[in-house]
Amino acid sequence: MITVNGENHEGFEGKTLSELLCGLGYKEAYIATELNGNIVKKDSYRTVVLKEGDSLEVVNFVGGG
Question: Do 55 and 7 touch, CB atoms closer than 8 A?
Answer without folding.
Answer: no
